[in-house]
Amino acid sequence: MASAFQETSGHLEVALRNGVARELERRHRRLGRPGAWWDDPARELNVAAHQAIGKARTDLRKWGKPVTGDYLVTALGFGFWRYLLTTRYTSTLWPSARRAFPHLPGKDRKLVERQVGNLHRLRNRNSHGEPVWHLPLHALREDLYDVMGYLSRELVEFAEDGCRIDGLLSDPPVRLGRGDEAGWRA
């Protein structure tokens, strides 16, 4: 179950980061700011974001990769992109980042933040080898496909082709929990 979610959520992670980065770059150019958006000349990003960008730059150098936009975007973890969707950025980055979600009903940043937050927690559990069978997997599947659908209808079609989540949910190899672990879903 964990690997099935990891496979499919990988598609979401790539589309999310590329879409948000594209829109932030467009915003940066539109505002006529020097450098790149991640240089943060207007000081809009918080300390944690700056630390993540610094670590990504260090990692790229260590790996012998150029510190360019495409490489930097891929070196930033899912958590970086998740936290760009939080309340802190509602009036600064969100109006532009929202454009990465053309199929989002309305302008509900909170909905995207909640769903991406749920998926980020699931991804972290998966990455640390923690069990996931007792989590609200049906609801997390809905979050996954909802967010992919906000980004691109074609992404949903692509991800569904070969996705193992539905098969495992309908015929699980172990008895699934009710997903009522305290504090799991936001």
Q: What does this 3D model show about the protein?
A:
- With 186 residues, the protein is mostly helical.
- It has one domain (2-170).
- The chain is built from nine helices and no strands.
- The chain has helices at 2-30, 47-62, 69-75, 78-83, 94-97, 109-127, 137-151, 153-160, 165-170.
- α1 packs parallel to α7 (137-151) and α6 packs across α7.
- It is globular and about 55 Å long.
- The chain starts with a helix and ends in a 16-residue tail after the last helix.
- The mean pLDDT is 91.
Question: In terms of topology, how is this protein built?
Answer:
Elements: H1 2-30, H2 47-62, H3 69-75, H4 78-83, H5 94-97, H6 109-127, H7 137-151, H8 153-160, H9 165-170
Which key phrases capture this entry?
186 residues; mainly alpha; 59% helix; 0% strand; globular
Structural class: mainly alpha
Helix/strand order, N-terminal first: HHHHHHHHH
The 3D shape can be described as globular
Work out the count of structural domains. Answer: 1
Which percent band covers the strand fraction? under 5%
What distance lies between the first and last C-alpha atoms, to the nearest angstrom? 21 Å
Are there runs of 5+ residues with pLDDT below 50, and where? none
- What profile does the largest beta sheet have? none
**Chain-averaged pLDDT:** 91
Helical region count? Answer: 9
Portion of residues within helices: 55-70%
**C-alpha Rg, in Å?**
17 Å
